[in-house]
Design brief:
Length: 96
């Protein structure tokens, strides 16, 4: 899938699959509004999920605490989608 054309639902699906894999449950059984900790995810699992997010969404250098700042699939998928769709503001010719 071209990550440039991913919808919010696509991001949520990638994230749900990564979290479910770490939690050892089918993605269909994952409640996207429940905290990651309710599925037993610890810091090591968060790192693995972060790597899956980077691969699946075409992102890199995600903040280490992203999963803790956005502790559910719903909130994190929105944050990721926003990161993916943020267009940097180009600097003007005079540097301002």
């Amino acid at each position: 899938m071209n990550t440039m054309n991913m919808t919010l639902d696509d991001v949520k699906r990638v994230l749900a699959q990564a979290v479910a894999a770490e939690a050892g449950i089918p993605a269909a059984e994952l409640a996207t509004d429940q905290p990651f900790t309710s599925y037993g995810l610890d810091s090591m699992a968060a790192l693995a999920v972060g790597m899956e997010i980077e691969d699946g969404c075409g992102l890199s250098d995600l903040p280490v605490d992203l999963l803790w700042d956005h502790p559910t699939v719903d909130s994190l998928s929105e944050a990721l989608w926003n990161l993916m769709n943020t267009v940097p503001v180009p600097a003007t010719a005079d540097g301002q």
